[in-house]
Amino acid sequence: MEKKALEYDLHRKLAVDLFNHTWDLIEKPDRTPEETDEMIHTAHASRYHWGIVGEAIHRQRGEWQISRVYAVASLPHPCHYHARRCLEITLENAIGDFDLAFAYEAMARAYSLLNDPVSCQHFINLAKQAGEKIKEKDDREYLLSELNNTVL
After folding, report:
1. What number does CATH give the domain 3-148?
2. Cα 100 from chain centroid (whole Å)
3. What sign does the CA torsion over 125, 130, 135, 138 have?
């Protein structure tokens, strides 16, 4: 196997493994401050590797995950920055379905943390509209459950 293929495979494996590890930390109910730091770092590391070998959808999902990490960590400004980047990548690349709805969900969550209920509700409404077009029923239901957890 040539060097480029090895590098590609390594970046892809790291992107996937770090994304999954970050998700495990997001879902951990008794996360320590050190694990919160790790969660932030692994989300950024995953996005970095996707930036090298991934397509727009991978970069979009990476930005979404980073935004979620900052939401979980109650850090509104970086949450908003990465939610906005997620939405920009989504719109620039005409990404739809589940990913469009969750880009709006990320924005709603960020505005909730920023104590901006008007903007939060605006993006909840956009997420719901986009959610109506999600093909998979389980994905639609998951979106609605996440929107119900977005505090206004």
Report:
1. 1.25.40.10
2. 11
3. negative
